[in-house]
């Protein structure tokens, strides 16, 4: 009898051993800034992104992965698992001189990962506020930070709006004239090389690329000599330079022996910016709109835990889902009260998405530069009011640097009382407005949108603060003035 019991216990132990002994994966979370739907090789063969393509095809391309219309709201969602309109960050982005940041009472993803024993590193663009030190990366869960606080800057002199903006942790760093994409890749390679591979690593890698200003070493833009528009040539060169950096980081993971144990997540933070040569064709619109071109992200997952490869995953995912999903992949238990849904099981097995609806954004602060409000439920999408400035379908040869540069905010007025309804299953590019044909569906989605609207936190978009001036801090944008 004792022998039978012993055998039974041993069998149970062997059965559960993989689940007990499996170590948490290393995680690299890559964000491409202002990256267009049509600006990646696996979707547009004229764009050279061999490293991105290889990683994407070794895992799953996410065909219905959504983000916010602009930078700050998406990044807040990645970190907190909460909709931006519940954090007061729904209106445009945080400007350099504004005394605000992502609310300090929200827990960031790296803080939760550190509780699980992860080493945490942030490399690149922050754009979640910096008016006080408590707002900055190394106070919000990251062991190290190498990058800049604001939303954009010169790729070579590392400055924006009259101030220098580059840090190694808290220490200001002067520019050397080297292209920032190269700096970020080199730092990532160094961290990987020095990392104790027995300890899990989380690397958050929000590239500056491919946000304006349009700048890149000429050898990259020369690759696209047959592209007639100079801004588009430069932009595509920036894309390929970013791809090369990702290839170098991938190589570092392989050299260290970490690659097979690493989960890689790649996502844009919003669609391509039409004015600055980004392209989202055939999707409608672009950055700063709630149309699909502004919010449907180029994204993929690859590596540790992803069981399916060379597959286009159709399931719905939203920016708020990444916080609980990554935490779950790391072995943590997500907070069930978050807006974000833990999609890890669905992504591992290419199973059905757990998400059936989401909010594109809700912004009541006039003028609603990046669109007023939109919701998706199932196959249907309702846009309530102004959708944003870029309302057309832009082919790559239509992308020129002066397009829409002088769009007036008065264009919001004709949309004040307008609602548009689209069936995204039948019409993913938003050509046919069904609002007059299906008033019952409009009513249903509008009612659900109003449910979310009751949860809104008023936009925290303060006036410019003179105390922020870099001249007060040795020429650098520096915390300590709010």
Explain this structure to me?
The structure is a single chain. The protein has helices at residues 2-21, 50-58, 71-80, 109-115, 180-194, 218-221, 230-256, 292-295, 322-329, 344-349, 439-453, and strands at residues 26-32, 60-66, 119-125, 144-148, 159-160, 163-164, 167-168, 171-172, 201-206, 262-268, 299-303, 311-318, 357-362, 373-377, 380-384, 419-423. Strand 14 (373-377) and strand 15 form a beta hairpin. Helix 5 runs parallel beside helix 7. The chain is α/β, with parallel strands linked by helices. The chain is globular. Helix content is 26%, strand content 17%. The strands form 3 sheets. A 10-stranded mixed beta sheet has the order 8-7-4-3-9-1-10-11-2-12, sandwiched between helices.
Q: How many β-strand runs?
A: 16
Give the topology string: H per helix, E per strand: HEHEHHEEEEEEHEHHEHEEHHEEEEH
Uncertain residue segments: 7-21, 404-410
Query: Average pLDDT across residues?
Result: 93
Question: What is the subunit organization of this protein?
Answer: single chain
How many angstroms does the end-to-end distance come to?
Answer: 72 Å
Q: Quick one: biggest sheet?
A: 10 strands, mixed
Form type:
globular
Q: Which range best describes the helical content: under 10%, 10-25%, 25-40%, 40-55%, 55-70% or over 70%?
A: 25-40%
Spatial strand sequence of the major β-sheet: 8-7-4-3-9-1-10-11-2-12
Helix-strand category? alpha/beta
Radius of gyration: 22 Å
Number of helices: 11
Beta-strand portion reads 15-25%
